[in-house]
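Example 3.2
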Amino acid sequence: MDNLDDLKAIWHVAKTDSLPSSNEMLQIVRKFRDQKLRSKWLVIVSSLLLSCLMIAVLFIVDFKLISTYVGGVFIAISGLWLAASNIRSLKRFSKLDDSSNLEFLNFIEQTRKNQIYYYKKTMIGLVSLCSVGLLFYLYEPAYQHPLWLIGIYLSILVYVAIMWFVVRPRAFKRHANKLNATQERIESILKQPK
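Structure, written as C-alpha cells:
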C-alpha cells in the first residue's frame, strides 16, 4: 500500500504545465498532416499543370529545331516526376489520422529520412533534368543572335545557381527545423513521468 501512496505522491508532484493536453496533441497531429497534405497537393497540381502546358505548347507551336522539343519533353518529364514523387507520399500522410504519440514519433522519423532522400537524390535529378530541358528549350529563340543567347543562358545559369545554392538549402533547413520542433514536442510528452 505504501508503494501506491508513493506513486500517487509522485504523480501529483510531476510538472506537466508545459505539456499539451490530449486534445492539443490531436490538433498538433492534424495540423501537421493537413499542412503536409495541402503542400503536397499544391505541388502535384502545379507540376501536372506545368507538364500539360509544356506538352500542349509542343503540339500547338511549330518549332524549327528539334532541341526545343527535346527541352520541352525534359521539362514535362521533370514535372511528372515531381508529381509522382509527391503522389507516393500522399497515402502515408492520409493514414496519419489516429495514431499514438510513439507512432507519430516514428512517422516523423520516417518523414525525416524521406526528406533527406528527397534532398540528396530526387531533387538533384529533378533540377538537373529541368535545367537541361530549359537550356535546350530556350536555344531556338536566341540561336541566331549571339548576344541574346549569351544573355538567356547566363540568366538561366544564375537562376539555377541561386535556386540550388541559396533557396534549396534554406528550404531544407526550414522544413527540417519544423520537423525537429514537432519531434521535440512529442518526445517531451513521451518523457513525462508515468
